[in-house]
Structure formats: structure tokens, C-alpha cells
Amino acid sequence: MKSRILFWSVIMLFFIFPQGFASAEKNNSDKVPAENVVEERYHSVLEKWKKEGIKGASKFEVSVPSSIATNLDKQNLLPKSESKGYGDSVFYWHNQQSISYEIDVPEEGLYELSFDYYPLGNGVVPIEGSILVNGEFPFYESRRIVFPVTWKNKLNTFGQDRFGNDIIPEQMTVMNWSSIKVEDASQLQPEPLKYDLKKGKNTIELSNLQGEMLVGKLEVTSLSKTPSYKEYLEKNKNKKLVNDLIMNEAERNYTKNSSYIRPFASTDPSSVPSNPKNLLLNSLGGDSWNTSGQEVNWNVKIEKDGFYQLTFKVQQNKQTGAPVFRKLLIDGEVPFSEVAPFTFEFNKKWSNVTLSNHKEEPFLFYLTKGEHVIGLEADASPVERVTNTTNEVMKEIEELSLSIKKLTGNQTDRSRGWKISEFIPDIEQRVIQWADTLEKENEYLGTLSKSEKSSKEMVSLQMAAKKLKTLSEEPDEIPNRLTELSEGSSSVAQLLGDLLVDLPKQPLLIDRFYIHGEQELPSAEIGFFQKTWDGIERFVLSFSAGNYSVSNTDDKTIEVWVNQPRQYVEQIQNLADRTFTPETGISVKFSIMPEEQKLILANAANKQPDVALGISNWLPYELAIRDAAVDLHQFEDFEAYSKQFSPGAFLPFIIEDSVYALPETQDFYVQFYRKDILDALNLPVPDTWDDVISILPELQRFGMNYYTPISGASGFKPFQSTAPFIYQFEGDLYEKDGMKTAIGSEEALKGIQFMADLNTIYSLPLQVPNFYNHFRYGTLPIGIANFTTYIQLTSAAPEIAGWWNISPFPGVKQADGTIERWATGSGRSAMIFKGTKDREKSWELLKWWMSTETQTEFASSLQNLYGPEYMWNTANLQAFKNLPWPEEHKDTIIKQWEFLQEVPKTPGTYMVERELSNIWNRIVFDGENTRSAVDDSIIAIDREMSRKMEEFGYMKNGKMVKPYPIPTIEQVESWAGEENDKK
């Protein structure tokens, strides 16, 4: 098998690099893709401008109203009367539209851009655009510009749940006209983005990526400059220090530019207010306020003109032990450069931090009598340098690893020696240079903190540099030690990758802040004895305090166990208390499920709940076949109710004609692709597997590849990665009577063969530990992934937001021209236990929970309160259409769900899944013939299936007693009187 892989590797390499390996190494066109096919990063462009002597332009300012912009749809140019109070014509900017402005500047130089805008829509989907200057993106960051929306709590007071704990209020947008200077969307740059405009006329084009807003004027100005503290004092000289004390609770009276910056219930008795029994929302931020650019503004009232000091009572508990940074804003402006940003050192305890200089001398802020706004913005710009350098080193490591793989045919036989330095003469210098670079960045990180203790990020840089120096000592051994360089959980690349995730995070928890003179402030921490007494009191009261743990309920209350974290359960309970119980009179208690595997034990002990939510989709079947679940098909309205879900999602819950669960959430496998990279390579988005194969040579020529879920699985390949290939080639997993497997059919064999060919012939990667990271860096700019990847890219990849998209799962084209895209979609499920105290009430609860109204409200509030990483992929199709996600993404997912076919369960399903994985491994790694590998597995599968069928009474002495009908999509569609013309 090794010789076979080597053969195909050599063949592919000669097609890709016809001039030979050595010349391929020198050919810059074969370097890491992201560096070749898209624009340079802003950091590099700034350095380039500096070397070329391009500076900020002389004092200049010009405004261009939207009414005289060019290249716009006149139908969307709204008159003054519809401008939301702007006082001039405005442009309704949405749906991928563009608006262009012509600017005449007197000299070439660097300028700043700002736009007046009024946000529209629900505020959850971010408003994003891109800016082209004279038809080009001057740097990559110009591809995504974010226009923030202002949020606030719907109520000024906190409500309480049934246990007396504070509830986070609903969120609402504050719609008003704003002006924003164009900034880096990842907020890693300390200043607004600069644009190089040529002397004379320049065209600035603002293109819509997503969201909608009204656009007013564009303003082009010379570069702004923030005064120093010395200049600030000089401007406000002869002002006196006021000795008043103004205290503000951080969790009150504020607005924010992110809906999910939220109050936090700190149980530390030093927090104010504090209660040993109930959870009080007594602070703000923490992990919900850790993204650079997130801003909070508090409204304060000043009684006297004069200078004041500013002190924040904070808890800075970043897990890595690194400092975090905040930019101070007063009435929307940075008062002086020394507080843009200010450092908050790591401290697990509450502490009063007075904004001061390096000599611990407090800064003075001049405030006039009246209303003011004090703001703090998370600011990761001090670590931008380290982030950029680390990214560059990682890309160069990836480039070197790719070159080595080309030369070695990706063979890692340790018994074979390589003289890699003959092909890459500077390999030793490269590796040493990376180590030196990382050590310099480590020293720089050390200057950002007063602490003598190294943060986790610093330790990662130290370890990476040490590994690189070790590798440089024996460069010819690097081909056999790639797991230390670029692959594996402890490699240099992995250490740096983890650092890039942790470094920009800026969590900070604020209890209160003081605007004051020189008087002594209240202590941030209470005394030792008071803290000890509070701990004892809290412990005693914990036995009587209400919570969401499992406990006994009365005979009239429906008990529901939920396999979700506390914040989910809290939201569901509050929703039920507000709507379900008042409407139906049915009392219900939701509890956090201890562990879903314990449901079987709880049922055996007759301690089971009435209803279980959020459980794995295999569990209802295991309980049902043991007679522990209620057949939902017995309810008269079940068939009509089932129309709300994808038919293919029911298949794991069916035994004969009984249905034992509802799909609660639904996964989706779609094709993710980088628009910027595919556009640069002029590659189409594949629609079929033939299309995928056709783009592979061009991708692989640039060191890129295509990702499938098989690469993401470890040694065991689950149904999610194998079953789609069998279904798309019109094969099946079981015979119709359920007694044997059907993977030996010609159709199934074609699917299995193609599944293996992708890795053996077409050189798709065998293992990819993290597709999300490779997708971000551009080494795998296209591939198939699921909901988890969607969340990661939506919430944690700001640098490529707006420049990736999704399309349906590639399929197999049939003779009639249709395309089979069948894929699995395992999600969470909801079921009723047979031991329930009231089946009808439990069914009413289940219907309410999975109704369109409930699912829509739950999903929207969850995302508003906790952020994009709390997306709720409801299985209710209509509710899914109502979710605050980009419309084009929802359309794609719903289109793919038309081909949702989950694997039906039988008593021997686990054996089919295991053997399919074994077949792939034997073909790919051992070079075994496909037919032979399948035949061997069929024997093992059929033997185990017969044994399990005897156990559950479907066979006796090797003969079928009664058939085990395999559920089908047609069967489910017949409940709703539909016909399926697909399959």
C-alpha cells in the first residue's frame, strides 16, 4: 500500500511540478495560498508605505452626501422625509448593493474615512461591508468593515426567576444616526484604517456584504491625532480637582455595541450587592466582554465642573494569566493617548484600579457639570504585533512542511534517511530565525505586564522557540519529525495556533466605578472574618435554596430533565413560566440532567423524569427497544404535528410504525468555501463530486486541498462521514427485512470505492485535526463540515467574516440530471418516558416546546443574550426560517435538509458503523481490495445482527420469526399524505 501511495504522490507531483522538485521549491507561486491569492495584510501594507515614504496628507476634510454618489440604485435613494431625521437624502444600503463616491484630493497621502449610518433590521446579524479604492482592495482588512449597533437592556430593573435569582433582561437595539471611522473589523489596530489616495480624483466604493442600513455622507479627512496627557492638561489648565465621590454600579444604566455583553452574578461576597442565598446580577462583563472592539458606555451625572480621578473595581481573571487592555472614552472620544489603551493586570481578587501613569500618579479628567458618558472598549491592539508575527511564522512553517512533503512523497519512514538540506539549503537558518523571532515577541509580551510571572502565551512562545532550536540542530531529521514542527497536539504549529486563540481575548469583570477626588475609596475586598462567615452562611442556605438540580416533584408537576448547561435551562423554565403554565394550567419543573447515560439507570430504578430534552439521537431507540419510552404515534395529532420537521430526521426514532422521540435540534453538513481564494483562483463552487475532482489539481498546485469529514475523524469513522457516500450512490445499509446488511450491493460498493478513492487516488488529506483553523489560514479553503464549524467561523473568525460562504453538500449526478446530495444530520432529541405520571400533559409540553413560536423566541433570546456561539439549530423548519441568521445561509441549509437522511437504528447498527470504518481503513492503509474488504465485513455484520435479532425476538435458531422493517423517508412522508419523488 505504501508503494501505491508513493506512486500516486509522484504522479501528482510531476503533473503539478513538471520542472522537478528542486525548481518547485524555488517557485514562489507554489507557496501557501493565502499569501498568493489575496491582498497583503494591513500590517504589511503599513510597513510598505513607511518604506516608500507615503505619509499622512496635510490638513484636509471633505464630505460627500449620498445624493451625489455614483453607481447607486436610484430607487434606494430615499428623500429627506424618509431619512429617519438625518435631514438629507440617504441611501438604503442592503442586499449586496454598492454605493460609490468620487473624491478629489489635493495631494497623494494617507487619509481616514468615516460614514454616517442608521442601522436597520434586528441587529443580531451584523452589518458588514467592504471598501474598494479605485476598484481594488488596498489591503485584506478592507474586505470587511463592521458597522456596530447600539444595544441596551429592555428594562432597567432585573426580574427574578422562581427561585429568587436575578434574570438577565431582554435586549433591544437603540436606533439612531451614528458616525464611524473605518476600522479593522478584528479591532487589532490601535487607530482607524488609513487609505492611500492618489492626487486628483479617487473612487471609493462601499459594497454590502450583509445586514442593512441607511447611509448618509462619506467624510474623508487627514489623519487624526490623539493629544498626549501633557497636552490635555495644558488645554484644561487652571481647573481644580473636585473632591466629590460619585459611585456607579457597572451593571446599571449603560449601553453597549454588543448584545451579549451581559450582567454577571458573582458569588464572591466582596461583590456589591451580595446575597448568600440568591444569585444577584451584581457585576458586568467577564467572558462576555472579551472581544476586542466590544464597548460599554455608562451614563453619569456630574454636579460640579473640574478635574476628577477614575477608579474601576475589577476582577481580571484571564485564564492565561496575561494582562488585558481597555480604551477609555469620555463622551465618545479618547481624552489622551495614555489611556488608549490602559492595562489591567491579572488579579483573581477584586481590586480598585485607578487610571494612573507608570509612576502610579493618577490621571486627572476634566468633566463639566451635567450629563456625560464614560466608556470602556476592549482593546487587543497591544498584542497585534505578536499576533501578526506569529501568523507569519505559522505560514512559513506550513510552507516548509508542504515543501518537505512534496520532496518526500509524504512518507514518514523513520528507517529511511533524508538529506533534506541538499534540496532546501537554508532550512537550518529558517528554523533558527523563527526561534529568534518568537523569543523577541516573548520579550515584548513581557514588557506589557508588571508581573514577573509568565503568562500562558509567553510559555507557549518559549516552548515553541525551544522546539525550533532543537529541530535546527539536526535539520535532516525534520522530515521524520514533522509531528514536532507542524502536525500533532504538541507541535510548534499547534502551540502557536492555541496562542493565537488566547492572545486577543480581553475578559474583564467590573463591579462598580468611582468618579472622585483624593478621598479614600471603599475597600474592594471585605475582611477575612466577614468572608468566612458569608461562606458558612452560603453553605447552610444552599440546602434550602432553589436551583435547577434534579429533585422530587409533586404528582401534578411535570418533571423535565434537560441535557444542556444552566443558562439554557434557566431560559426554558422562564419561558414556560411566562407562557406554557398560564395558558395550559400545567405546572412544569426543568432540571439540569446529571448525565444522559444515567437515564437508563434512572428508568431501571423507576426514578426517571416525565420528559427528557436535549438527549443524543441514539438514546430514545435504546430506551424504546427496552420498553421504556412512550410511542408518540399513538397521539391523534402526532402525524399533523410531524409536518414541522424534516422526514429524514425521524428515522433513528422509529421501530416498525412507532415513533419514540421528536428531533429537537438538527445538524447540517454543507460545503464551506472561501470566496476570496476561489475567486482569486477563478475556481467555481463545486456542485457535484465530479466538480470537486476537477478543481483539485489547481488547489493542490497552490498547496491547498479539499476537506471531508473522514479526515476529521480519528481511527474510527462514524456514520456521519461514511453513510452519505453509500446513500448518494443509491446504496443502502440494510436489507428491507432488517436481518442482514446491504453494503455488498453494487450501488453501495460504488459509494465505498469512491469514498476510499478520494484519499488514495485524489490525495485528499488523511487526517485534519482542526478544519476550522486550516480554513481560516487558507490551507483548506473548501470542504464539508457541520454546525459546529459554522458557529466557530461565525463567532471566532473575524478576519475572514464576509469572505466565506456555504453551499449544499456535493452530490452524485444521476442519469436524469438530478443530483443526489443525501447526508446525515444527527442532532438532539426529546422524548417522553413510559413511567410518566401523565402522558397527555407530557405530550402537551413537548408540543409547546417544539412549536414554532417557542423555538423562535428561545433561539432569538439565547443568541441575543449570550452571543453568536449560542446559535440554536432548531429542528422545527419554520422556526429555523425565523432565526436571526443570514438569509442566504438559511436558504442553503434548508435546501440541504431536503436531502437529510439519518441512519435508521436496528439492534445491530453499531456493528455496521464499526465495520464501515474498518473497511475504509483496510482499503486506504492496507491496500486491500474493496470487494474483499466488504465481503469480510459482511460476514461479521450479519453474524452480529442475527445474534441481536434473536435477543429481541425477531429471530429464533437462526431463522426469522418476524421481519424488522427498516424505516424509510417515504414512510414518514406518508403520515402527512405526501409523496416523495426523490428516492
Describe the structure in your own words.
Mean pLDDT is 90; it is low at 1-35 and 979-983. The chain is α+β, with helices and mostly antiparallel strands and 983 residues long. 34% of the residues lie in helices and 21% in strands. The strands form eleven sheets. Strands 1, 2, 3, 5, 12, 13 and 15 form a seven-stranded antiparallel β-sheet that branches. Strands 16, 18, 19, 21, 24, 25 and 27 form a seven-stranded antiparallel β-sheet that branches. Strands 17-20-26-22-23 form a five-stranded antiparallel β-sheet, with no helix packed on it. The radius of gyration is 31 Å and the shape is globular. α20 crosses α21.
Name its key features:
34% helix, disordered C terminus, alpha+beta, seven-stranded antiparallel sheet, 983 residues
Q: Overall mean pLDDT score?
A: 90
- What kind of sheet is the major sheet? 7 strands, antiparallel
Beta percentage is 15-25%
**3D shape:** globular
* Oligomeric state of shown chains: single chain
Terminal residue distance: 37 Å
Classification by helices and strands: alpha+beta
The number of E-state strands comes to: 42
Separate helix tally = 30
Radius of gyration (Å)? 31 Å
Low-confidence stretches: 1-35, 979-983
Instruction: State the share of residues found in helices, binned by percent.
Output: 25-40%
